[in-house]
Fold these 4 entries.
Entry 1:
Amino acid sequence: MNTWGNKLKISIFGESHGAAIGVILDGIPSGLPLDMDFIRREMLRRAPGQNALSTPRKEADEVEILSGVMDGVTTGTPICGIIKNTNTKSKDYNKNLLRPGHADFTGFQKYGVFHDFRGGGHFSGRITAPIVFAGAIAKQLLRKKGISIGSHIKQIYDINETSFMDCSISKELLNEISLKDFPVILDKIGEKMKQAILSAASEKDSVGGIIECAVLGLSAGCGSPFFASLESVISSMMFSIPAVKGIEFGRGFDFANLKGSDANDPFETDGEKIFTTSNNNGGINGGISNGMPILFSVAIKPTPSIAQIQNTVDTEKMENTTIEITGRHDPCIVQRATVVVECGTALAVLDSIL
């Protein structure tokens, strides 16, 4: 299925090398003035072809809004936005050679000979552009409720920077990071990360990393137990981002190394509000927000399209062979995926609030 959500629903459509990609966003109330400059800025953060760290494929990613907005204000009806594909090179792809790490094989198994293999088709990371458009609208509605969302690159390959868990985070810090071409807290660490990406590219290889995301200003009581837990809703959206292979909230897998006395978040009050003095659980207990910042991290796998010779299968001949992938690909997609994670989170949080 290509539709997600409960009270807020999004449906994505299109292929990487088709005429256009797009989204239908249903559930945004009427009367929200859209900041189109903000939407363009969010789209630009994800757009390809901006520097040596990303694919040379250049796409403007300008969104044409077909419905749901009149005179710059939402009408309450479904919002449809499309993004034209203007720079495709389908000749770079061979439908008979399965690319390791891609959805070529599984797509073929599901859709047969009609599977669109060009640039990954509907499985392509390019389809995250409509998610950014929808999420940029959700961000604006959340902002009116005092909720901010931001992220940073926590790790590239084996290079780590400080975590939101271990520093003082604020809306100002999140905004400052979002304005950077390479969204990190510590620019010196960011330079080392860039070098690791360029080094992998020079070896015809790629690297992955970790993105850490924060939600500030969400009051206690958002979410539900079990199947509609805040973790469940956020995770379902995160795993809709093609390169995400893991997620953890708060201390996540580090909980396995702790005792309860270290893992618990003690409560305090200032006489008016109740809060915790630590945030090991990432702002969520029992699937419901506890008023502390929502903190989680996602693992992004290395870009599977690499120019090294790899073993594969020729599906037409049913023979073992090799493939050397050509075309235009990112040596690392982590820096472009930060805004996708943020916008996906905005959709998940808004759906939980509604």
Note: The chain has a mean pLDDT of 92.
Entry 2:
Amino acid sequence: MTTAITPQTDPDDPAGTKPVGALDRFFEITERGSTYATEVRGGIVTFVTMAYIVILNPIILSTPDVAGDTLNAAAVAAATALTAGVMTVLFGVVTRLPFAFAAGLGINAFLAFSVVGSVTWSEAMALVVINGIIIVLLAATGLRKMIFDAVPVQLKLAITVGIGLFIAFIGFVNAGFVSATGNPSPPVDLGVGGSVATAPTVLFVITLLAGGVLIALRVKGAILIALVGGTVLAAVANLIWPFGLDFGFAGGIMSLPDLSLIGAVDFTFDFSKVGGLALVMIVFTLVFSNFFDAMGTMTGLAEEADLADEKGDFPRIKSALVVEGVGAIVGGGTSSSSSTVFVESGAGIGEGARTGFATVVTGALFLLAMFFTPLTSLVTGAIAAAALVLVGAMMLSQIKNIDFSDFRVLLPVFLTITVMPMTYSIANGIGAGFVSWIIVNALSGRAKTIHPLLWIVGAGFVLYFARGPIESLFV
């Protein structure tokens, strides 16, 4: 006869909700209703949904600067993975929140398409570092949250939507789906002469639609899968109908990371090429884009993870905002663009991640990805362009949260969203939205609703738009 063994329970914790071990207590795993297995799974899922940035960031940052120089793609990929890994682990340990970091989409586009036409890449990354220092100071003093609260939520959402359209437009152009005609009317056309029947553009369309289906089906890592699938399809197509692609590997799929871009920043700006006021407005736009986007993303992720209170605040919010500023400093210092919290962290949260332990797992996988950056050379421009359009489409979804019933909201939001892609400038879109919001609301009887800080920001943008004549006064 055998005696059944009854599991022993702690009489002070019959439900088993007490943390087990120092690591559990530090990350508050049991306290938040999670487990190690759940956190590991959530961390892996977040990495899979974010891994595309290691491929995409070098492509976005491939624009020649004012001197005609470009950043080495392999070095950018390695720096992107390194920065994402370091900042994600740091954020997980300091804040114990399930939010992962990587090079911010929108900020990297602003650098590539608006900034390096006036400065070199090393100078642009120095501006990112300055932006990060300002953000850290604003966060440490509490001013960051005050400024965030001063800007109407409709404008915050409009900026995200506008950046999404801008990124998508860049994707269409890079894929050859949209091309310049060289004529006053129409200035752009579909493909070449109205046709998109070229191999790269067809591959772009197939990859775009395949990625759209995967996202619609809520497949984890949909963008990464679409990039890999499109690349394989491009390789096969190139074998059957050669159209100039080179998929050869000189050194295999794994190599030591090229970290030559670390520290490649230049704070000695050439003021003969770019004026002081223009530099100030570039930094202003970087700061604005960086901390508004990050705070909005953090708030949304905290809500999704049930970690936010009724005001939208979440545990260790001040530390989170400071570390996010450090991400900009580190991103600039490695020439990978500002590193910030990624909304894709929501995929891991959806898998049950609730603590920084999942974040540490994601960061460790990014550090491992540094050694596989040669794989990024396989992705052609047309395939990567599909990912840009997919990301843009997802950013567009925020438009559903904007109330268009009041024209005081409609016009500034419309200008913010449309001016960005139409002028190829994120700064122009933000400025148009802010200035129009202030003027329309002030002259229609709602001047008292405009926060004093918003008046200051709007005045700065007026100077930005008039910088040409103003700078000429000091020449």
Note: The CA atoms of residues 40 and 358 lie 5 Å apart.
Entry 3:
Amino acid sequence: MSTSATAKVPPSPESPEDRRPPQNAVDRYFKISERGSTLAREIRGGLATFFAMAYIIVLNPIILGSAKDMYGHQLDNGQLVTATALTAAFTTLLMGVIGNVPIALAAGLGVNSVVALQLAPRMSWPDAMGMVVLAGFVVMLLVATGLRERVMNAVPYGLRKAIAIGIGLFIMLIGLVDSGFVTRMPDAAQTTVPLQLGTGGHLVGWPVLVFVLGVLLTLALIVRKTPGAILISIVVMTVVAMIINALADIPTWGLTTPEWPGNPVATPDFGLVGQVSLFGGFEKVGVLTGVLFVFTVLLSCFFDAMGTIMAVSDEAKLTDAEGQMPGINKVLLVDGLAVASGGASSASATTCFVESTAGVGEGARTGFANIVTGALFAVALFLTPVATMVPSQAATPALVAVGFLILAGSIREIDWADFTIAIPAFVTMLMMPFTYSITNGIGMGFVAFCVLRLAAGRGREVPVAMYAVSAVFAFYYLMPALGLT
């Protein structure tokens, strides 16, 4: 998960007494002593970050593996575990060596939903992952040309926050549906209610009980500010599910069966790595829709990563007196490469994780913490049987918790008194879960913003880029009426 935040007041630097001359070549390269840290703190921070975000090894395969492409194909769960751990290890190590910041990366929650629920049903899996790779190339191009921050500045701050909130609500709804806590009403029911509680309006079965207990446990651990709360909840509820499964006759737990594997260690299956078609998706959906899909993946990664980078660097006291982080272009470049590499491995776009603040809280200040975190993800490559035994009802409580955390971290940042921002933000955050589409939420919010600013006589305040993007979205929505689909 990655939730956006913006540094407002630059922190004070480390006190001079915390800084010592470099002790060795590693210390000198990573500037450990220079930044007032120690090797022990970096190791401890790397461990904390890994355990805070290791849940993605379970959650990402569940989200991607539960979806089908236009041909009815599903991705293999074991191969997804390998792809997720591999990309997290590679990009986290790369960020540590090149960016020298304690910011770990992994498959982003939110963007994987875009890939699974919007791209894949309209094309093949290689086509969908190809669009993720293209989005990564665009990010790197924007960084190389210096346009990334300019594009970011074109979208109003309130709308950026609304996009994050909408993704959070969307993630929460996915968790409720995938767990069976909420189910779809069949069309034959002839009802205006699209969703219902549990089965037939009632919560029935042991699996749903596991989910409910998992949600309560996760939220209780978060309230107590327990490090690694999400991962702890997944592990505990998986054990509970295994016990229940041994005592009760349960036909299915959903996506996986909670049974302890005979051998918890296995050779990684790299079958999904390189299964990419860069331009095949455009043949399936057309150039305009394909461009919008790439743009949606880009936005899902773009603003969230920028906010996370600034939030973590601010907490780690890596910003200067103006609140800027020296060497940020290296960090942004690695972030763009991470998006592309996630698509190339079929793990979906990889992005910066705000859980990195767990490592910063333990004292991490340099990229050496990432070396520790990345190494642990590499070890996880050989633990696929353990990851695939987790039932969806034990993992989906994390989606509810992540959705809340995204909302809580962003909703107060919107100027609700300015209706030209508040209404588009409202439209953006609600249309994502209500239409089951992140693209729709972004597009409708952008169009609403431009129309309302014009109606208020404030059209000159809208950047040209916003008008251009909104026009593309408006044309996209009008295509069926124009007979172009």
Note: The chain has a mean pLDDT of 84.
Entry 4:
Amino acid sequence: MHNSLKLDQPEILSRIFYPRHGPKTVPPAGACDVDFEMEPGIVLGCRFYMHDSAAPSILYLHGNGEIASDYDEVGLEYMDVGCNLLVMTYRGYGWSTGTPTVQAMFKDGRQLFIKLIAWLRDNGSSGPLFIMGRSLGSVCAIDLAAMHGDLVKGLIIESGFADTLPLLQVLGLSPTATDIREEECFGNREKIAQVKIPTLILHGACDQLIPASEAEKLQADSGARNKQFLLIPGADHNTMISTAGKLYFQTIRQFIDTITGRSSWRNRRKQKKSEPNDKP
């Protein structure tokens, strides 16, 4: 277990987590809910947007204050570009039970990752696997990519952060409130240095919560040989998709296609060749 136990102090936890409860809603067409029991009395509710069993699957760790059903429209956009989106979640968020802590987040993330791989296999999914984390979700995404690089094809980070203490200060925690040191925090910089799989980092140029310099640190420290960095002009922490529009999803799909050796051009050419020639 990571040495971030010091983050599990009440005054720090109140800054890190903003759990938002929400009942189960009816999933949109093509989506389904799957509940995973992590331990007796603790169930994490996830929502999966399934395009096709052979399509690439993205295991997605959402941001703070968000719940799985917030991604109903976004999930459909991923399906439109030919990807499955599997929204993982945390204790106390949405219809998930329990109370979030840092230690539980790491433990659950690692267990849930294995459970999700088994679920995909049992449901006939054969496509390549990617991990994506947004904001707080970057913590688990980087952790999993560092541990299980042999099981996933690539890592995508949106609005992620390198150092923890500056973020805690932005969130209102006084530097003198605790005796915690950076090396006792999430360790994103240390872990992303261990990540060797292809990595795409997306960030808003106008992000005031997590400045773009944090994304630049992650990019610099990443151990991946194939690493891409996209700064979206005019976007802040919560307007990446609305600012970039279709380009956001196309960039992610292009990243996936480059890694897997597939492209829309190749697919169109293959399809055209397979069509019968009706000309006399």
Note: The beta strands are 31-39, 42-49, 57-61, 84-88, 129-134, 154-158, 199-204, 227-232.
